[in-house]
Each structure stands twice: as C-alpha cells, then as structure tokens.
C-alpha cells in the first residue's frame, strides 16, 4: 500500500497540528473564501511576505498551509473539514516536498488522491497544482 494515499494525522506531541487544523476549519466556515491555498510550509509561509496582504487578502483568500505536512496529512485535512461549507473558485495546492521517504510515483499518486478529493467536494473549483521537482528522480 502506498503510504502517500492513506489519510494520516501526523504524530503531534503538543497537539499543535490538530489545533491549527481546527482553526482552519473555523476560518473556512466564517469566511467562505474565493481562493484557498493548501499544502505545507511553502504555502503556509506565503503569509509572511507582502504579496499575501497585497495580492491574496484582497481576493478573499485563506491559507491552509501547515509546515511539515506530507501528502497523506493534507489528504486527511481535505477529508476532514477544511473544504466543508465553502465554495472557493480557486484552490492552489503545493504538497509533496516533505515526503522524503517516498518515491516520485508514490508522491504523485498522493497528490492525485488529494486532487480527486478536492474535486469530489468542490466540483466547480479550479485547481492549480504547484509542483516542486527539486528531488524528482526521473529514473524511478
């Protein structure tokens, strides 16, 4: 079984991951964003740069990035609340960089599982996948 497609809650001794997920679910219910960003640190840290306030906030955007997330963690979050009660027009997805113990094929299957789940919950949403190929091994 490919671990990248099995929805998972990461080990979290201080419950920070679960707290952050619950906060994102509450933000989504309160705002109903037009644009959502989902992924790991690359997504989460966009909020630290002027482009977030200058370009994304005026477009009614929410950032659902959690540092360290792998495909299986994002899949769990997508299945468990962050997409409920919202109808965004655009979803920007960047995930897979933290799947360091997995093959490119496993990671791509994980990304596709997330896309399928997003599509099933948000059939009219335009999905943009940002792929980072730094560790891509084209031979495997």
TrEMBL record:
| UniProt KW Nucleus keyword | no
* Keyword Hydrolase (UniProt): yes
Q: What is this protein called?
A: Platelet-activating factor acetylhydrolase IB subunit beta
Q: Which InterPro entries does the entry link to?
A: SGNH_hydro_sf (IPR036514)
Question: Can you tell which superkingdom this protein's organism belongs to?
Answer: Eukaryota
A GO molecular function assigned to this protein is:
hydrolase activity
Q: Which UniProt keywords apply?
A: Hydrolase
């Amino acid at each position: 079984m490919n671990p990248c497609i099995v929805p998972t809650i990461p080990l979290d001794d201080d419950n920070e991951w679960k707290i952050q997920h619950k906060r994102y679910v509450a933000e989504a219910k309160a705002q109903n964003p037009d644009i959502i960003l989902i992924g790991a640190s690359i997504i989460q840290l966009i909020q630290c740069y002027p482009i977030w306030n200058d370009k994304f906030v005026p477009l009614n955007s929410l950032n659902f990035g959690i540092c360290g997330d792998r495909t299986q963690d994002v899949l769990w979050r997508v299945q468990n609340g962050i997409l409920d009660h919202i109808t965004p027009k655009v979803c920007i997805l960047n995930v897979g960089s933290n799947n360091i113990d997995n093959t490119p094929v496993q990671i791509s299957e994980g990304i596709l599982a997330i896309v399928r789940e997003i599509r099933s919950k948000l059939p009219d949403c335009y999905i943009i996948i940002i792929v980072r190929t730094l560790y891509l091994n084209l031979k495997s």
